[in-house]
Amino acid sequence: MGSNEELLAKIKMQAGDIKDAMQLKEENLSAMRAILRISPMPLEQCQSGSFNQDACYTQLVNSLKTAESLLSSAHQYTATGLTDLLLDLQELISNFEETMMEKGIPVPATSPQTLRSDISEFQEKAGIFLILHDLCKSLTAFQEGLAAQSVM
């Protein structure tokens, strides 16, 4: 769990840096999400009230793979922190898939997604922020769901 918390901190830091540098406002982000066609990552299976371990693992790995493919498609913004974060994300996906196999949970196959290629650098950075923000929410929901299960 410690490495997940470290990755979560890295993601939050990278997202915060982008948001601060671009002076992004919340009202602009929802419009940008629509323009870029980036759907929020689903969380319902990982919410602590409806936590289902098998479904949550599947939902989380799908979200992680989607985020990884979207971030990998960024072509204008290639900060070193993002490159390092992608490597950490790939390792996390691999660790989750290994855990799923050990638990007998089928590992989902996903289709890679990419950011639109006809976007400005500003739009790409906003998209990266949205993806990182969603990643934070997904990992936090997963950790909270697991914690709630272990208390019961």
Structural features, described:
The chain is mainly α and 152 residues long. The protein has one domain: Growth Hormone, Chain: A, CATH 1.20.1250. It is built from five helices and no strands. Helix 1 (2-22) packs antiparallel against helix 4 (80-103) and helix 2 (26-36) crosses helix 5. The two termini are 19 Å apart. GO terms for molecular function: cytokine activity; granulocyte colony-stimulating factor receptor binding.
In short:
This is Granulocyte colony-stimulating factor. InterPro entries: 4_helix_cytokine-like_core (IPR009079), GCSF/MGF (IPR040117). The protein is mainly α.
What are the key terms here?
mainly alpha, single chain, 152 residues, 4_helix_cytokine-like_core, granulocyte colony-stimulating factor receptor binding, Growth Hormone, Chain: A
How are the elements arranged and paired?
Elements (H helix, E strand, L loop, with lengths): L1 H21 L3 H11 L16 H20 L7 H24 L17 H31 L1
Helix pairs in contact: 1-4, 1-5, 2-5, 3-4, 3-5
Organism: Eleutherodactylus coqui
GO biological process, one term: positive regulation of myeloid cell differentiation
Protein name: Granulocyte colony-stimulating factor
Helical stretch count?
5
Structural class: mainly alpha
The mean pLDDT is: 83
**Inertia-based shape:** globular
Q: What is the fold-level CATH name, i.e. the topology?
A: Growth Hormone, Chain: A
What's the total number of strands?
0
- For the termini, the CA-CA separation is 19 Å
Q: What's the domain count?
A: 1
